[in-house]
Design goal:
Elements lengths: L1 E7 L4 E7 L7 H12 L4 H21 L8 H11 L22 H21 L13 H4 L34
Antiparallel strand pairs: 1-2
Helix pairs in contact: 1-2, 2-4
């Protein structure tokens, strides 16, 4: 799989898409990345999300899984898989314990945001797609908007749901 730069003639902008091994765009990623471009997201954000989604769809391809059928446990395994170096991400290759993670926590948080956006986008378009990570972003991402019947949720509108293996901690960088 690879990321391909695309010129959008109607918007006179640059976008990105994920191309599978057969040379065709991955439809789910293409629709989401096109939406990000159309809503005015930065081309750098769209490019970073395209690389994140390439990793995700590469992982689902190795497992012969449809992204619509995954659960939170599967996504936790994906984030563990991401922390392996690229050559060790192939099926049947094992990593020795104690090896340092190949991806930092800040990158994992960005990849989590890309997946959350992908799931939220497709959950709005198709009721068979679970929101998964899109539901776990908490009140900060919702802004002032509180959805109707939010008070009926099991955890309440103000509580933030977290899954430790899916939400890595970030270190704050101090200015030099």
């Amino acid at each position: 799989m690879r990321v391909q730069r695309v010129r959008v003639p109607d918007l006179d902008r640059v976008s990105y898409t994920v191309i599978d091994d057969g040379g065709l765009p991955v439809e789910a990623a293409d629709a989401y990345l096109g939406h990000l471009t159309a809503t005015g997201r930065s081309p750098y954000t769209v490019e970073a999300y395209a690389h994140d989604l390439r990793d995700f769809f590469e992982w689902t391809g190795q497992r012969d899984a449809d992204f619509r059928c995954l659960g939170l446990e599967d996504l936790a395994e994906f984030f563990v898989w991401l922390q392996r170096p690229r050559p060790v991400r192939q099926p049947g290759v094992y990593q020795l314990p104690g090896a340092p993670p190949a991806v930092g926590n800040t990158t994992l948080v960005r990849k989590r945001a890309a997946l959350a956006g992908l799931y939220r986008f497709h959950a709005r378009r198709d009721e068979t797609v679970p929101a998964l990570l899109g539901e776990l972003t908490g009140p900060r991402s919702m802004g002032r908007y509180v959805p109707m019947l939010a008070h009926t949720r099991r955890h309440g509108p103000g509580r933030m749901l977290t899954v430790p293996s899916v939400s890595p901690r970030q270190r704050r960088r101090h200015p030099r």
